[in-house]
Each structure stands twice: as C-alpha cells, then as structure tokens.
Amino acid sequence: xxxxxxxxxxxxxxxxxxxxxxxxxxxxxxxxxxxxxxxxxxxxxxxxxxxxxxxxxxxxxxxxxxxxxxxxxxxxxxxxxxxxxxxxxxxxxxxxxxxxxxxxxxxxxxxxxxxxxxxxxxxxxxxxxxxxxxxxxx
Amino acid sequence: xxxxxxxxxxxxxxxxxxxxxxxxxxxxxxxxxxxxxxxxxxxxxxxxxxxxxxxxxxxxxxxxxxxxxxxxxxxxxxxxxxxxxxxxxxxxxxxxxxxxxxxxxxxxxxxxxxxxxxxxxxxxxxxxxxxxxxxxxxxxxxxxxxxxxxxxxxxxxxxxxxxxxxxxxxxxxxxxxxxxxxxxxxxxxxxxxxxxxxxxxxxxxxxxxxxxxxxxxxxxxxxxxxxxxxxxxxxxxxxxxxxxxxxxxxxxxxxxxxxxxxxxxxxxxxxxxxxxxxxxxxxxxxxxxxxxxxxxxxxxxxxxxxxxxxxxxxxxxxxxxxxxxxxxxxxxxxxxxxxxxxxxxxxxx
Lengths: 138, 349
What we know:
The structure holds two protein chains of two kinds.
Chain A: E1 6-10, H1 15-31, E2 34-41, H2 43-46, H3 57-66, E3 74-80, H4 83-90, E4 99-103, H5 118-125, E5 130-133
Parallel strand pairs in A: 1-2, 1-4, 2-3, 4-5
Helix pairs in contact in A: 1-3, 4-5
Chain B: E1 2-5, H1 24-34, E2 42-45, H2 52-55, H3 61-72, E3 75-77, E4 83-85, H4 88-109, E5 113-116, H5 138-147, E6 153-157, H6 164-169, E7 176-183, E8 205-210, H7 216-234, E9 238-243, H8 260-273, E10 280-284, H9 290-304, H10 321-337, H11 341-346
Parallel strand pairs in B: 1-2, 1-5, 5-10, 6-7, 6-9, 7-8, 9-10
Antiparallel strand pairs in B: 3-4
Helix pairs in contact in B: 1-9, 4-5, 7-8, 7-10, 8-9
C-alpha cells in the first residue's frame, strides 16, 4: 500500500463534520500529508438563500491547526454541487486524493434515515478508501 | 393546440414560505398560460400518479422504497437544498405521471404541443439520489417510457443548472440524446463539455457550459453550431424539453441573462427539432422569479402556438461567445481521446 499523501474531508460546519476534520487533520499531521477541506455549495447556498449558517473557512483552519496540522498543508475548497457528488469527483482516479474522510451525518441529513446518507454513498461508490467519523469519536 | 398536464389542485409538497421551490411557482406558470387566452385551443388532462414500474425504468426500486418510507415517516431534509414531506412521494409520483399523460395525449391527438407544469422538478434526481429540489426525474420517466416502445428521444435542457440526473440516467443509452445549455461553474458541478456520454452512447451527451452573463444570442449560436449537427444525425422521434426558466436575467438562482423573447426563440428551435407536430413536450424544471416565470411561460407557448405576444426583446452581446468554440473543440477532443473518433464522423448510432 502506498503512503497517504493527500486527504480530502467533507466539511459543512455540522458537529460530525468538525469531528471528521479534526480526525483528518490529526492523521494528515502524522503522515505529513496535505489536507483539503471541501465545502459543497448547493442551489440555496449559491443564491445565499440557505437557512443554515455557511461554514467558515477560518473555523476550519483553526480546527485543523489545533489538531496539529501546519497551515501550509491545509487547503479550503468551495465547490458547486451536492456534498456526495463533489467528494466523489475528488475521489476520481485522475485526482490525487488518497483518502476521503466524512462525518457519519452531515448537517442536511435527517436522523434515522439511510436515504441521502453521504457517508454510505461514498463508501459504496468511491474509488479510494473512505473513513466515516462519528460525532463524538474525536 | 396546447395540452396542459399538471395536478388540478394545489400540490401539497411544501418546504415552507422561505424555500424558493414552492407552490406559488405553479400559480405564476398557470397565470402565464391564462395570459395566452387560448379558449378552445387548450386541453387540460388529468394526471394520475405514475406507477412504480414506470418509475423503475429510471430509478432503483431500493431508492423508491426508501423514499416512500422516508415520506411515510414524516420526511425531512435530504440534503441542504432538498426536502421531502409526508405527502411528497405522492406529489412526485403525480408529477412524473403528468409527463406520461402528456405523452399519451399527444399520441391520441397526433398534433399539438404539451406542457407539464409540475413540481417538484426532476432533472437533478439521479437513479439513486434526490438532490437539487428534485425527488423523481419526471422528464427521464417519460423519455424511458418512449424508448421502451422503440422511440428515439431528444431531451433539450435549457434550465440554468445542468441536469446531472438526466445525463447520468441516459449516459449509456443510445436511444436518448441529451443536450444541455447551462451556466458553469454552478450547481450541480457537472456538465463540462468533455462529458460526452458512455461507451454505448458516445457523443449523445452534448453539454454547452456558459459563463455568467451569457445572453440569448450565445445560447442560440451554441445550439445551432454544436447541437444541431448531432441532432440532425440522431433524428429523434420525440423531443422533450427540460424547460427551466431560471436562465432568465431576473432569476435569483442563476446569472445567465436571457429574456422572455429568448425563451420564445428556444421554443421555436425545439419545435424545429421535432419530426412532426404532436411530438414535443415541455417539462417545467426551475424558475424562481414569479414575474419572469409568468411572462416566460406566456412567451414560450405563445411562440409555439404562433401567437403574437409582447415578449421582451431578444438579448445579445453578453459574455460567452468564445465558449461555443471552446465547447466544440473540447467535445471533439474528448471523443477522439476515448478512441472512437470514427463515431463522431461516421455515425454508428
């Protein structure tokens, strides 16, 4: 197995995604890997009509730094799309991401339902390993 | 003759007053239809719910079962954009059924044009996933019903957003040609010119991504220069339109710069793609400015019925003209790279 040099983590500001970011930043620091935090911008987000607060880059940077990652190894990305589709595009073989990390439940998901579960879909369809981090794990 | 196939009463699927995909959209659309004063030239058809076997042509049974159960349990948010309520699965089945009834009405009459003003919209819904306000892919359900009968279907999608769901569903289907003009980059992040279809349908996905500010002349040019040659070779039996009006310059969810006069032009182009009368149906997708929605609907169907109307002037001079040539080159290169250049030149469909 080759070394992990590039990690992508889904981040929407929810408690689970903060845990995922913390876990991924810690791993990236240990592996001397780069970490990309991806925030998917939806239809409502693009039009600034989203009812939930937009996750802030500065908060993501702070979480990553607190977990031991150097700022130079951290990258913030906002991409258009559904969270799952956006992460799957990053996991395409042409994209140099070795590992995807997500929280077990994103901010937009309904508790108790498997429908719309980003983590489940990623596990099913991603071409790279996926780590699903529960909210209270980190 | 205009055939209108939509729910007769209010659609219960309701995400609240602040959500832009709301029942008021249908009121605006129907105001636009009434503005045409069609009298005897309009037929309203009833719209039963689509049967599961119709939906299962384009959605997995696992997804359908989960979505129904989710709604039966009260629903909730499926992602930051998309909601479902207890009555949403029924509403979505009725929306998909409206398309099937519109097709059936056109087949019975043998002429006219059909309009399917329904919600929730459909073109973002994938085989296994709701997204972008969409639960079931209405236009795909109708297209699949036609291909099941041996027809070749052209889907033209001029919503400001790319129809990722429709593209994915027919990615490898040689009997469906999908042509989309859309703003890029924008949600859902798909729809690059290099996305040209799967190995069984290479070249049968035609994406024309346009920059913010693109005007109607650019869209017309793109359809004429990039899409028209492919459409001519494909020779569709039916033309279905994913008819979003959020490419209008007043829409809050996009930044293209079309006018109602541009939609009238696009409608005439779509009619010209159809092999004969009675083979054109337009499905409502996006469109979130009430006034623009009403006037765009009136302009679109006024043009299809050859009515004089006071549509806004066509737009021109916006950004994006260079995007047309870029798109053509990117498509050609993608098809070449995939090793099937002969398909692009020779026609093995």
